Amino acid sequence: MRIRDDFSATRHTTFSAEHDASTTQRVAQAYDRWAKTYDSQDNHTRDLDAVILRTHGPSIRGRAVLELGCGTGKNTEWLAANCRTVTALDVSEGMLAAAGARVSAAHVSFVRHDLLNPWPVTDGAMDLVVGNLVLEHIQDLAPMFRECARVLRRGGKMFLSELHPARQLRGAQAHFTDVSTGDVVYVPAFTHTISEYVNSAISAGFTLRHMGEWLEEPQLQQVPPRLLTLQFVRTT
Ligand SMILES: C[S@@+](CC[C@H](N)C(=O)[O-])C[C@H]1O[C@@H](n2cnc3c(N)ncnc32)[C@H](O)[C@@H]1O
């Protein structure tokens, strides 16, 4: 019997091309189109993510936080109310405009930035990095976790919340209906297995502290979890 135990070395993509600048551009363009309705259209994944972060997320009071892919600021707003500082990065101008309209405070900064490029953050400056529903749009996780380790102080935490890979393997992918055209738009996405998340983080110097698999009520037991959450601490 042949055994395959290193899924972390495999890229399962729902998108055939390599992730390059044009992929990011397509992701940004899709979110620019989605920005106006992201908060108002039905979206169980968005809503469950907000609840889980607030009820089962990391301790945030007084922390310096870096938020990856802040989108329309759904979570930035809550972070801003509790954290010492929030630096929120996103590549989509449209999503950032919505976030800026929602959250305006001196201790919160929004920065338009592609996460594939080195992050505009000083080494060791952050207590916490949060990334919600963003890594599905990034093909190569290793540079993401290396940047997380670089910007966090030792002992700093990382909280990730992602569409569960079991859902992705059943065909789930970030998408929306563009109300101006009626088009259903699928945002380029990549499927990462749980071992890929965990082993990439361990390689970058993190220790796993908690893993969560979440589903809203009422749902049938047979349905895979909707969200995967991972909490790490920077230990080296
Ligand atoms: C599904 S939205 C999630 C937004 C927010 N975190 C939330 O939970 O509602 C994904 C966000 O990630 C951003 N994003 C995707 N790829 C990115 C990249 N390479 N660099 C920066 N932001 C990116 C998108 O622009 C979008 O705003």
- The chain-level mean pLDDT equals 93
CATH topology: Rossmann fold
Strand order of the largest sheet: 4-3-2-5-6-11-10
Classify the beta-strand content into a percent band. Answer: 25-35%
Number of helices: 7
What are the secondary-structure elements, in order, as H or E? EHHEHEHEEHEHEEEHEE
> What is the CA-CA span between the terminal residues?
38 Å
CATH architecture descriptor text:
3-Layer(aba) Sandwich
Q: What structural class do the secondary elements suggest?
A: alpha/beta
Range of helix content = 25-40%
Name the shape in a single word: globular
The distinct ligands, each listed once, are: S-adenosylmethionine
Low-confidence stretches: 9-17
Which CATH C-level class is it?
Alpha Beta
Q: Nearest-angstrom radius of gyration?
A: 17 Å
Q: In the CATH hierarchy, what is the superfamily?
A: Vaccinia Virus protein VP39
| Main sheet: strands, sense, barrel | 7 strands, mixed
Number of distinct beta strands: 11
Task: State the main characteristics.
binds S-adenosylmethionine, seven-stranded mixed beta sheet, globular, alpha/beta, Rossmann fold, 30% helix, two-stranded antiparallel sheet, 7 helices, 236 residues
Summarize the structure.
With 236 residues, the chain is α/β, with parallel strands linked by helices. It contains 7 helices and 11 strands.
Q: What can you tell me about this protein's structure?
A:
This protein is of the alpha/beta class and 236 residues long. The chain has a single domain, classed as Vaccinia Virus protein VP39 (Rossmann fold, 3-Layer(aba) Sandwich). It has 7 helices and 11 strands. The chain has helices spanning 21-34, 44-56, 76-82, 93-102, 141-151, 165-169, 194-203; strands at 12-13, 64-68, 85-90, 108-112, 126-132, 152-163, 175-177, 184-186, 190-191, 206-214, 227-234. The strands form 3 sheets. It has a 7-stranded mixed β-sheet, with helices on both faces. Strands 1-9 form a two-stranded antiparallel sheet. Strand 2, helix 3 (76-82) and strand 3 form a beta-alpha-beta unit. Mean pLDDT is 93; it is low at 9-17. The structure holds S-adenosylmethionine (SAM). The site of S-adenosylmethionine has 25 residues, from helix 1, helix 2 and strand 3. Residues 24, 27-28, 31, 46, 49, 69-71, 74-75, 89-92, 95, 114-116, 132-134, 137-138, 174 line the site of S-adenosylmethionine.
